[in-house]
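Lab notebook, page 48
Experiment: co-folding of the full assembly
Goal: obtain a model of how the components sit together before planning crosslinking
Operator: M.T.
Materials (sequences as entered):
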Amino acid sequence: EVQLVESGGGLVQPGGSLRLSCAASGFIFSSYEMNWVRQAPGKGLEWVSYISSSGNTIFYADSVKGRFTISRDNSKNSLYLQMNSLRAEDTAVYYCARETLGCFGDCYDYWGQGTLVTVSS
Amino acid sequence: QSALTQPASVSGSPGQSITISCTGTSSDVGGYNSVSWYQHHPDKAPKLMIYEVSNRPSGVSNRFSGSKSGNTASLTISGLQAEDEADYYCSSYTSDSTRFYVFGTGTKVSVL
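Observation: model returned without errors.
Model output:
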């Protein structure tokens, strides 16, 4: 069974840092492109970052570029999001999502349950 | 940075058909056959309903169908059921340099 389990969320002060993790199981993690998607309270979904299966290709939304870093460790079946210089507007539930193999577009066929990040003093 | 435009809400009675639109530009919806649709119930993970404009993943009811014309994609739900009540989001690859993928603004579907 495919599972994605996020962890690392919590309350952090503005300007602080947090590292999210996404533990994958039930599939060959190293074969899949992965993403982080977030949803602020009462708002819609927002794409945050993409990483290729090898980790060699990475993209970020402008809203997080220069502050967030996506990475993966295929030997540990894990995806990460290092978040620095956090702002109140980064408050959201953060989801890791797997892209369907061979699909053009995001095609997120599996999502984690999400982890809540709250940025507040 | 603009999200794809969706109506805020759409409603219908059980058994009816409804259509949700998703309007973008030639840099995203109109330029690529990469539109996906997601169903999102509160406190649950989103679920992929349609990919590559009109393809249904295994296990998704054939009551859900997708299409595209120009810069606007559409999701049609036929034979509306109570469990279809949820938020729906479209998404697309984009050649906009500010991002890689873009979501729609989201549509709340209510079953009357």
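Interpretation: Chain B has a mean pLDDT of 95.
Next step: discuss with group before ordering constructs.
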